[in-house]
Amino acid sequence: MPQGQVPPSRIAYRIDQVTQQILDLGVTPGGVLLVHCAFSAVGPIEDGPLGLIAALQAALGPDGTLVMPSMSDVDDQPFDPRTTPCLGMGIVAHTFWQLPDVWRSDNPHAFAARGPEAARITAPHPVDVPHGPDSPVGRVYELDGQVLLLGVGHHANTTIHLAEYLAGVRYRRRKQLVLLVDGQPAPFHYEEIDHCCENFQFVDEWLDAQGRQRRGEVGHAEARLARSRDIVAVVVERLRNNETLFLHPVGVCEQCDEAHAYRLQVIRSGAGRIGE
């Protein structure tokens, strides 16, 4: 089924119905809300992806700020916040950044935002630390924002990468992007906290066990809602005890193998965790 397309047999929800579902789940009017979404699970909704965005904005109200990932789909071309697509983030995120009054950060690891805190959240951030404290997810955390997962699990939750950084994990993967340097495309090499993210699913159990996550339904999709600070707190606590919790054992997947190999190099060099 094409991206964003929903089964035709489902009944379409009205925008006001979806707004009420979002409020019933516990989204805070006037707050900051970071959304990760698979519209194929949520819909159909009146007016499609635009209808879902309208429902989210209505729930937040005029004093709230809506945030979505807006990363580039390609690493071998310079990022342009005015034109670069982000279809890999889903049709809702790709629709959102193109709307009026939406700010989008000028970074291949971009986020988009609309509302009173949009300029602060999308202000310039480092390319080589995509989800650290000085990043859009870090700023949502600082603002005590909420994270809403619609039709996706915690494998899509970028806030967990912030927790990995704050926990001082020593694993990385070597990456390359193309940036504009003096107006010309140039390769940029960096090291990013990254792996396959499949084991981010553990965060469900951790949050549920402490009553820090609310579950419900938005549209036709399973929805999860938690404070960014709660996500970070439960993840940091566990990674401080075992920093490889999210990595598969060696030999299971290439991405986690790369992360393990990098960590081993760091350990052999005698370097400690960040902050130690």
Q: What would you note in describing this structure?
A:
The chain has 276 residues and is an alpha+beta fold. The chain contains ten helices and nine strands. The strands form two sheets. It has a seven-stranded mixed sheet with strand order 3-4-2-1-5-9-8, with helices on both faces. Strands 6-7 form a two-stranded antiparallel sheet. The longest helix is centred in the C-terminal third of the chain and has 16 residues, at 254-269. The model has no long low-confidence stretch (mean pLDDT 95).
Oligomer: single chain
Q: Strand-residue fraction?
A: 15-25%
- Give the helices and strands as they follow along the chain: HEHHEHEEHHEHEEHEEHH
Helix content: 25-40%
**Biggest sheet: strands, sense, closure?**
7 strands, mixed
Radius of gyration, taken over Cα atoms and rounded to an integer in Å: 19 Å
How many distinct folded domains? 1
